[in-house]
């Protein structure tokens, strides 16, 4: 014969489980570090500033980054020679566009190196710029923008730009 136990079976109290889970969620939300991804700081024009228009070759300086070498207006150039080349052009016309095109096979770091060189013209509070100009209009077309241009017009503007020279 089996003996019956007197009293209740021990139970885990679950009434406060929801409260504890809620407090843990709040704790982790408050203490978590929210990191915003930071990219290149680009000054984008406002919608009402002006309508989109095609930039003529005379109005722009084209910089092509292809792997380990780059072309500035179809001339082979080192990164350190970009600003001296741009100086007479941008002193004359401060609104001249600088179009930076990076080939899909080129390393991303190379494009950043060229962009940083262009940004040196602005200078900083700690290191005032020695350049009498500022590169204001930098355009970096995406691969999809280039692809759309090719589909619409049937030519790659960055390949045909240097063909005649």
UniProtKB/TrEMBL annotation:
<keyword id="KW-1133">Transmembrane helix</keyword>
<keyword id="KW-0812">Transmembrane</keyword>
<dbReference type="GO" id="GO:0022857">
    <property type="term" value="F:transmembrane transporter activity"/>
</dbReference>
<feature type="transmembrane region" description="Helical">
    <location>
        <begin position="20"/>
        <end position="37"/>
    </location>
</feature>
<dbReference type="GO" id="GO:0015031">
    <property type="term" value="P:protein transport"/>
</dbReference>
<keyword id="KW-0472">Membrane</keyword>
<dbReference type="InterPro" id="IPR003400">
    <property type="entry name" value="ExbD"/>
</dbReference>
<keyword id="KW-0653">Protein transport</keyword>
<keyword id="KW-0813">Transport</keyword>
<dbReference type="Pfam" id="PF02472">
    <property type="entry name" value="ExbD"/>
</dbReference>
<protein>
    <submittedName>
        <fullName>Biopolymer transporter ExbD</fullName>
    </submittedName>
</protein>
<keyword id="KW-1003">Cell membrane</keyword>
<comment type="similarity">
    <text>Belongs to the ExbD/TolR family.</text>
</comment>
<dbReference type="GO" id="GO:0005886">
    <property type="term" value="C:plasma membrane"/>
</dbReference>
């Amino acid at each position: 014969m089996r003996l019956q136990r007197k009293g209740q079976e021990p139970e885990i109290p679950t009434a406060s489980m929801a409260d504890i889970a809620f407090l843990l969620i709040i704790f982790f939300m408050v203490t978590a570090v929210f990191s915003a991804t930071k990219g290149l700081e680009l000054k984008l024009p406002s919608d009402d500033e002006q309508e989109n228009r095609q930039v003529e070759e005379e109005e722009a300086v084209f910089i092509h980054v292809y792997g380990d070498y780059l072309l500035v207006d179809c001339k082979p150039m080192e990164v350190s020679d970009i600003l001296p080349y741009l100086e007479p052009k941008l002193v004359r016309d401060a609104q001249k566009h600088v179009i930076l095109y990076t080939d899909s096979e080129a390393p991303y770091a190379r494009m950043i190196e060229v962009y940083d060189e262009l940004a040196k013209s602005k200078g900083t509070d700690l290191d005032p710029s020695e350049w009498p100009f500022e590169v204001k209009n930098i355009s970096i077309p995406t691969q999809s923008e280039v692809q759309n241009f090719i589909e619409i017009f049937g030519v790659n503007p960055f390949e045909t730009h240097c063909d005649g020279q």
